Amino acid sequence: MSDIPKGYKQTEVGVIPEDWEVKPVSEIGIPVRGGSPRPAGSPRYFNGTYIPWLTVAALTNIPTSQLLLTETASCLTEEGSMCSRTLNPGALIIANSGATLGVAKILGIKCCANDGIAALLDLNKNASPYYLAHFINTRTSYLREVVATGNGQPNLNTELGAVHL
Hints:
By secondary structure, the protein is an alpha+beta fold. It has one domain (29-149): DNA methylase specificity domains (Adenine-n6-DNA-methyltransferase TaqI, Chain A, domain 2, Alpha-Beta Complex). The protein has helices spanning 56-60, 78-81, 129-138, 140-147; strands spanning 8-11, 14-17, 30-33, 46-54, 68-69, 74-76, 85-87, 92-95, 104-107, 111-113, 117-121. A hairpin with an 8-residue loop joins β8 (92-95) and β9 (104-107). The two termini are 28 Å apart. Mean pLDDT is 86; it is low at 160-165.
């Protein structure tokens, strides 16, 4: 006797609608990691006015129920932006290390992201960034305990793009 409702199927990620597909992250979008200018804190790069600077704190200091990130606490200089990764509105962003690993949001502004942020760019037109963010936020324990295990601080990298969340 099956507990799977009509119109649904069992997959490696659980029970999903029959017309859905399970795909690796790398088939949904392009996984990338932010970049941080060095040395950290240098006035040459930081506390500028050129472009917002996205850190893990900005991503995790907004309420869990708020998925759209629309502001950051600081900005980079123009030179700092050249040593980072610029992300555009609509990108799915994810804290990629530490205690906040796996917290996902949708970017609502153009900004530069530090190396504590991963992003999925050029999302497949059939993938809803809001659904993905909600889903990833339900998988933080799995990401911390299974995917990003190892010595020291848990960490995701773009090599994990083949992972089925």
